[in-house]
């Protein structure tokens, strides 16, 4: 008895498919002019420009001015942002898990936490310079949340009533690693304590199947 064929995924709507092709072109060929991209796709320059404008609004691409070959008239080119690069598959999590596994095998269980804690100390030093204790707590929390969001955690600040604040991470970009190495989450908790100089309690954790990582700041 033969297995039933897998159903093919429905095709993307034409505008979305065009945007995806634009991203692929920029990924493969690097910075491109709107004229080059339009020619690749067999479409008009105004049509390509509209799609590129949408991608810019989404933060996936950016425009800059450069001279072809270092000379000649300046021209606008489009290129992927870090967010646009992140839209393509990466194997960072697999590499990280492999490295931590070998580290643990060579130097023992405590080695993983030592390395992650050393990283947290370095990060805390940078953050403390930008978020000194002289700033109001709310401003420091919002600055920390903004930094976390840049790192892919989609973090927000909640609360404020009765002096109780929360940082809520609605995404975990390191989920594959965190599920296998909870030391990563312990190290993150330590980072918050170092940066804020206050007690921090984790109430929920994405790696445990909950919807967010929720940190209570203060007693």
Structure report:
It is a single chain. The chain is an alpha+beta fold. It has 2 domains: 14-83, Arc Repressor Mutant, subunit A, CATH 1.10.10; 108-217, Trafficking protein particle complex subunit 3 (Muramoyl-pentapeptide Carboxypeptidase, domain 2, 2-Layer Sandwich), CATH 3.30.1380. It is 52% helix and 15% strand. It has 9 helices and 6 strands, in the order αααββααααββααββ. The model is unreliable at 1-14 (pLDDT under 50).
In short:
It holds the Pfam family MarR_2. With 219 residues, the protein is an alpha+beta fold. It is 52% helix and 15% strand.
Fraction in beta strands: 5-15%
Low-confidence stretches: 1-14
Determine the structural class based on helices, strands and strand pairing: alpha+beta
Shape, principal axes of CA atoms: globular
CATH class of the largest domain: Alpha Beta
**Strands ordered across the widest β-sheet:** 3-4-6-5
Backbone CA Rg = 23 Å
Helix and strand sequence: HHHEEHHHHEEHHEE
Produce the secondary structure layout:
Blueprint (H helix, E strand, L loop, with lengths): L13 H16 L4 H8 L3 H13 L3 E6 L8 E6 L1 H5 L5 H16 L1 H22 L6 H14 L4 E5 L5 E5 L5 H6 L2 H14 L3 E5 L8 E5 L2
GO molecular function, one term: DNA-binding transcription factor activity
Protein name: Transcriptional regulator
InterPro entries: ArsR-like_HTH (IPR011991), Carb_Metab_HTH_regulators (IPR050313), HTH_ArsR_DNA-bd_dom (IPR001845), HTH_MarR-typ (IPR000835), WH-like_DNA-bd_sf (IPR036388), WH_DNA-bd_sf (IPR036390)
């Amino acid at each position: 008895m033969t297995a039933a064929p897998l159903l093919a995924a429905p095709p993307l709507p034409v505008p979305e498919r065009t945007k995806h092709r634009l991203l692929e072109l920029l990924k493969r060929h690097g910075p491109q002019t709107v004229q080059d991209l339009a020619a690749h796709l067999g479409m008009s320059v105004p049509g390509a420009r509209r799609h590129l404008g949408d991608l810019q609004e989404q933060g996936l691409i950016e425009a800059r001015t450069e001279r072809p070959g270092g000379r000649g008239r300046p021209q606008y080119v489009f290129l992927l942002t870090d967010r646009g690069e992140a839209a393509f598959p990466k194997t960072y999590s697999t590499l990280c898990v492999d490295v931590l596994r070998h580290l643990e095998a060579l130097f023992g269980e405590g080695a993983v936490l030592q390395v992650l804690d050393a990283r947290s100390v370095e990060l805390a030093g940078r953050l403390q310079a930008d978020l000194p204790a002289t700033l109001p707590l709310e401003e420091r929390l919002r600055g920390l949340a903004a930094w976390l969001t840049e790192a892919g955690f989609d973090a927000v600040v909640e609360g404020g009533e009765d002096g109780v604040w929360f940082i809520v991470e609605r995404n975990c970009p390191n989920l594959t690693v965190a599920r296998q190495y909870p030391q990563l989450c312990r190290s993150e908790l330590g980072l918050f304590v170092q940066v804020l100089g206050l007690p921090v309690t984790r109430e929920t954790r994405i790696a445990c199947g909950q919807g967010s990582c929720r940190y209570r700041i203060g007693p």
